[in-house]
Amino acid sequence: MARPTGLIATKGIELLTWGTPNGYKASILLEELKEAYGRDYTVQGINIIQNVQKEPWFTAINPNGRIPAIVDHDNNDLAVFEGNAILGYLARRYDTKNLFSFPVDSDDYARAESWIGWQHGGIGPMQGQAGHFLLFAKEKIPYGIQRYVGETERLYGILNDRLADRDYVVGPERGKYSIADIALVGWVNSLPSTSISYDQFPNVKAWLTRLWERPAVQRGFSIPSAPTYNLRQGLSAEQAAKIADNKKIVDAAKEQYGYKYQSP
After folding, report:
1. What are phi and psi of 61, to 5 degrees?
2. What sequence ranges are listed for the domain GST C-terminal (predicted)?
């Protein structure tokens, strides 16, 4: 894709995104809506490494300078930013049959909001900080590593328990695939980067495998580029070796601070 310099569409949804756990929320739901309702959309890749998201034309859409963001050209060019706000907006306005959401007056609507809020305030920031301190910080700070990797583990323990007797996070009986699952799937897919194994949370692993079977999820994960880790394809030898090295760092940090896994 050429470097974006502004909006290019005049109708429909225009998605501004990059290949991150939050970015995939919007692209996956848009692919589901496209498949179910025939609603097409326009996408522009916003290269966050090049700081395109900090340019004035983009911050006019999202003052926070983060992806994803959408502009609904069919609704007075309304701009919506933050991945979970985008999920809610698209579901309320365009998922007219509640195929991926719940009626706003239902108890499951409130349950879905609770789990989406839990992701937004828990797994997203904790796992993000775990990745930062383990992978990107110039100094390997043991306290930060064990703190955020440990908190990520704790949260995945909660999700693993939630999925013990159900296929999806929210919904009657064994649950229904919904935006509550879409909010989580990008983060869960990137879990190996924290050195945490899917095998520690078998119910989460089975859930992620289930979501990867959906064609719209597969397409959404390719927009604008595929993730580094992909449960369906497994890890390369180089990735596995890097994760093993990182796990040694994590284990040493845990031992130094006496970390013990506990959830919730």
Report:
1. -90, -45
2. 105-243
